[in-house]
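Two quick folds needed for the group meeting slides. Do the first one here.
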Amino acid sequence: MTRERPTSRAISHASSGFTLIEMLVVLAILAVSAAVVPLAVGPVRERTLLARSSAALADLIARAHAAAIREGHTTRLDVDLEHRTVVLAGTSQRIRLDPSLDVFLTTAQEVGRDGRRSLLFLPDGTATGGRFRLSIAGGRAPGRSLSMSWLTGAVSRER
């Protein structure tokens, strides 16, 4: 019994690779995946930025409140909305808020001539109170709010 060997033409045709249709299907899948990924990643990045910024702000407010009670004198937190900085007066403790954030501040005092506002913390634990609102213009992630109680100086986070 003799076995026939496949011809070189049969071998080359069987292992010729992918067809044009298969390649187009793969490219279409890749294109759809590339279009969907930024839509999914954008809100995650926004939420992370908002969470990180509100946590840093809440931490600085808590430090100012604790310093007033510990040191026994009024402590001031200076907020410059134009330059997006929040500074614990008399110290090097500061945070710089991301330029993509919209920052709104409601306080008991009017904005000064230089565009700055201050939150005051008194030695008895009370404060002037205020509310920060952080959001991203045109963003899909919900904004974050920080409220500072005038009675206790405590900070509460809100959505």
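Then this one, please, same format:
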Amino acid sequence: MAKSSYKIPVSIDRSRLDHKITLQAFELKSKPLSIKIILYWLSFLFITAWIVLQSPLSGAPWIVLVMLVIWMSITAAVLGKQTKTGDMKFMQLPALLEYLPTRQRRVMTRLGSRPFGFSSIVGIKDIEASGIIRYVNGDVGQLYSVVGSASALLFESDRTAILRRVDNFYQKIDSGASWIFLTTKESQRVFQQIAAIEHQNRALRHRDPELLALEQEKLDVLVNDVGGQFSSLHQYLLVRAPGMKELKAAHRVLRSERENSSLMFRRCELLNGADALDVLRSVYQTPSTEKGGLIA
């Protein structure tokens, strides 16, 4: 029987300060708190007591000391708040200070600009015509356009079969390659519809002006409206490996999965260099300005 839910195990990157303990006084129990939170607030209490009682500010009027304690308490509460990853807010201060200067928030991508800033963001060195993506650290990758089978309206038997197939797939893949799913919001793909209209237009025996105008109207709607203004979600799979040997092995596993079953992938199409560049452009590109945007 497939599992009804999955959870991410505790990261091995956690230190001993991340372990949680429960404080108990008399019959009262607190919720589990990590050791670093307890040490943080104990440090705050000691520092506050030292400032109020023994520091040069201890001789200030009592109203000043009260306002100082209130301000320190609010600051400590804000900086001591935990993020979704379990880190504390004050740990983000160094990154915030580096982000504040305007030059740190803009990456120039003009032809005459240095490429190191943008290269540090994406790490891509080159994209070959065959679709092979080469990274600056020597890794290689390939992009696939994929369509899954999951849906909220599945029957219980189909849902169980899909979960079991996905679980078996991840047990087969080699840990040497990285499997990264990208979800983008792009214009709808209308290539096949445009090709069908073009084929229908060429098959016309009578070139009636009104009929040709109707065909042109259908083409304009597909190109400008459906393929231009209406957006839909598209999902891609990026397989990244340290070398071509590992990448080819991952490609064989993916091809075998697609050929033997449609439970995990209903469609899986290998993208060439031009298509891969369009996908990456949709991920990284921002509206350009006169001074240059993120992506040229």
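Slide caption for protein two: The longest strand covers residues 231-241.
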